């Protein structure tokens, strides 16, 4: 099985419920085993900034799926949870991005791994550093990459949200 990392984000509706339902569906998907999970982080919108704040979380998974098979599952979960097609980087019910996968460096029309913009996004690197601090990207630890973004992030506010983290935990425990 290969190790992979995913980032989930939401800024519409019951955000904690969307995260919990997406995590539950990932956990129930064939070929995926959930591992470490970060706390939930509250972050300002990136790209298109005139929209509600996001809740973001990163998870480590083990999978025997090929990258595009994993992508199909992630997109299927988004669709099952009601994600609507809107503008790029706009508001969304749920978004599941594959950040990186052991031994995979690829670029196709559907998928680029490692994720091409993750190193620019504090809302990705902060929760990722929580669960994969020592993992290296281009010879630099995830912890150091996140620390660099904290210094240079400017308006990219991103902080752990204890209440959202607890609510997601409670929602998952009910399933």
From TrEMBL:
Biological process annotations from GO: folic acid biosynthetic process; tetrahydrofolate biosynthetic process
InterPro entries xrefs: Hppk, Hppk_sf
Domain of life: Bacteria
Location of the 7,8-dihydro-6-hydroxymethylpterin-pyrophosphokinase domain: 88-99
Keywords from the UniProt entry: ATP-binding, Folate biosynthesis, Kinase, Nucleotide-binding, Transferase
Known EC number: 2.7.6.3
Entry protein name: 2-amino-4-hydroxy-6-hydroxymethyldihydropteridine pyrophosphokinase
Organism: Hyphomonas adhaerens MHS-3
